[in-house]
Design goal:
The complex is a heterodimer of chains A (about 250) and B (about 260).
Chain A lengths: L1 H6 L7 H15 L4 H39 L7 H22 L2 H12 L6 H27 L2 H9 L4 H16 L1 H14 L11 H12 L3 H31 L3
Helix pairs in contact in A: 3-4, 3-6, 3-10, 4-6, 5-6, 6-8, 6-9, 7-8, 9-11, 10-11
Chain B lengths: L1 H8 L11 E14 L2 E14 L3 E5 L6 H8 L7 E6 L2 E2 L7 H5 L2 E4 L11 H12 L4 H14 L15 H13 L5 E5 L7 H16 L3 E5 L3 H7 L2 E6 L2 E6 L1 H6 L4 H10 L1
Parallel strand pairs in B: 3-8, 3-9, 6-7, 7-8
Antiparallel strand pairs in B: 1-2, 1-4, 4-5, 9-10
Helix pairs in contact in B: 4-5, 4-6, 6-7
The chains are: A mainly alpha (about 250), B alpha/beta (about 260).
């Protein structure tokens, strides 16, 4: 260290810091390489956002089918409704089994290379793959939420004349949602991080952005830590947001 | 209060006159199989509920009285027999049970207010969604009903901020918001602290006076005696004895009723 200081007397910074400075310049500033991270982040956020929406939509539908089936099938009169419910329940169960039983990266590749082989819209493919995947987990979370609501709530709704769907929409789902909010938030934190495999099918997301920089500069340290840090910040920020929302929802009942 | 209550409830629009049959129950049965063999929760119940009547159903626990009451709006599906409400067989698959339930209010033992909604929203949800009332109309009506139970100042509170007695009073007026032709009470005071039973019974008495048709499952023998126009004693899924409160309480004929009354009075 002393040797290096004496060798370079003009430099006022310790060597490791000036190395870091050079490294920073090389990885982020030179040739506007930070743009890889910025564009990647934007892509990651877009994919996550739309996948979350798709996941919730699919999850709620699947959860309603499953819990409707489990609660009512034994009481239902034979007829078309009963048959339809049985078929849709079987389909939903198949969906849950397949999606939860296979790795998401395989699902992503199947979606990209087989199902949408002709599509050029990479983001759409990623949103569909991650949304469908997330939906399966959301379904089980919401279903447990629905099952946790006292049956009296359901009976009160029905006794007022609300039909099954109305009772679900106005009474059961809002309460179930509130109960499972922490579990849902956790699922979305997982989803944000799961999108980091988008690079497998050539999507320029945040992780891929960092990796591209690494491959250009042959200096893995800064790009990869920067990527990790950005994910961490998003997740911490999101967790904070959820805990505020949770507190609000709780307060509304007091 | 009775006259005002009538005005708000606007119950005159039904064609059925006081004293005429509103609900006709014939040979109602609910049998189901369990590990212990076939259980007959309801075993051939036949009775009529007339408009303006306050029918009180008493009996030991497990006698089927709640099952009977809950069958009247099909929260329990009977396995046999028929229930005719305002001339419509509600047990037939072609009847629109959701439409019929709008005319049959129900009050539960555990209140079952919607905890995520304010009192006002609890009360106006069904009228707005089902009767297509405008928000101001529904809220005006809810507020009038709240005044009747002296809870208008809690209109924008949440259920968890209320006492049990207050919750049950809200549950009653929530049912009244739909202007039902009959109100079913499933042990409305059983979950209440003793000092709150009175306030709920008072509301029910006022309702009875206003001419509301009521079917009440209860352990409050004082209420049955004072307010009931007819009392049914059930045991093992059957009606064992029925008559005026006087006949049931002062001159019980059946042995099981006698021993039941000896325990509860």
């Amino acid at each position: 260290m002393i040797a290096s200081l004496t060798a370079k007397p003009v430099c006022l910074l310790p060597k490791w810091l000036s190395d870091l400075q050079d490294d920073f310049y090389l990885n982020f500033i030179k040739e506007d390489r930070y743009l890889y991270l910025l564009r990647g982040l934007w892509m990651t956020l877009k994919i996550t956002f739309f996948a979350v929406i798709l996941g919730i939509a699919l999850g709620v539908i699947a959860a309603i089918v499953r819990s409707t089936h489990d609660k009512n099938i034994s009481e239902m009169r034979p007829g078309l409704g009963r048959v339809l419910l049985k078929i849709s329940n079987a389909l939903v169960k198949l969906y849950l089994t397949v999606i939860r039983g296979t790795p998401v990266v395989v699902q992503l590749m199947i979606t990209y290379y087989i199902i949408f082989a002709s599509s050029t819209n990479q983001m759409l493919v990623a949103v569909l793959a991650f949304g469908i995947n997330s939906g399966a987990y959301v379904a089980e979370i919401i279903r447990s939420g629905i099952m946790s609501i006292d049956n009296g709530q359901f009976e009160a709704g029905r006794s007022l004349g609300l039909n099954y769907i109305q009772t679900m929409t106005y009474i059961i789902i809002p309460q179930a949602f509130k109960n499972v909010l922490p579990a849902l938030a956790n699922e979305f934190i997982v989803l944000i991080k799961e999108t980091s495999i988008s690079g497998y099918v050539g999507i320029m997301d945040l992780t891929r952005g960092g990796d591209v920089i690494r491959s250009r500069t042959f200096s893995p340290f800064l790009p990869l830590f920067a990527v990790a840090l950005i994910y961490l910040i998003i997740v911490v920020f999101f967790s904070k947001l959820v805990s505020i929302l949770e507190r609000r929802l709780r307060n509304s009942e007091r | 209060m009775s006259a005002d209550m009538n005005e708000i409830l606007d119950s005159s629009k039904s064609d059925i006159l006081p004293g005429e049959i509103l609900i006709s129950v014939s040979d109602l049965a609910k049998h189901y199989k369990s590990k212990a063999g076939e259980i007959r929760a309801l075993d051939g119940i036949t009775t009529d509920i007339c408009k303006g009547e306050v029918l009180v159903i008493i009996g030991p626990s497990g006698s089927g009285k709640s099952t009977f009451l809950r069958s009247l709006n099909l929260l329990e599906r009977p396995t046999g027999g028929t229930i005719t409400f305002e001339g419509v067989d509600i047990t037939s698959p072609s009847s629109d049970i959701n439409k019929l339930r709008q005319k049959m209010g129900m009050v539960f033992q555990h209140f079952n207010l919607f905890p995520h909604l304010t009192i006002m929203d609890n009360m106006t949800l069904a009228p707005r969604k089902l009767l297509k009332m405008s928000k101001p109309d529904a809220e005006a009506k809810a507020l009038e009903l709240l005044k009747k139970v002296a809870l208008e100042d809690r209109a924008y509170a949440y259920p968890s901020q209320l006492s049990g007695g207050q919750k049950q009073r809200i549950a009653i007026v929530r049912a009244l918001c739909m202007s039902p032709d009959v109100l079913l009470f499933d042990e409305p005071t059983s979950a209440l602290d003793p000092e709150m039973v009175g306030e709920v019974l008072d509301v029910m008495k006022d309702l009875a006076k206003s001419g509301m048709t009521m079917a009440v499952v209860t352990h409050e023998m004082g209420f049955a005696r004072e307010v009931g126009t007819r009392v049914i004693f059930m045991d093992e899924g059957k009606i064992i004895e029925e008559g005026t409160p006087d006949e049931i309480f002062t001159n019980p004929k059946n042995e099981r009723l006698q021993s039941f009354l000896a325990k509860v009075l």
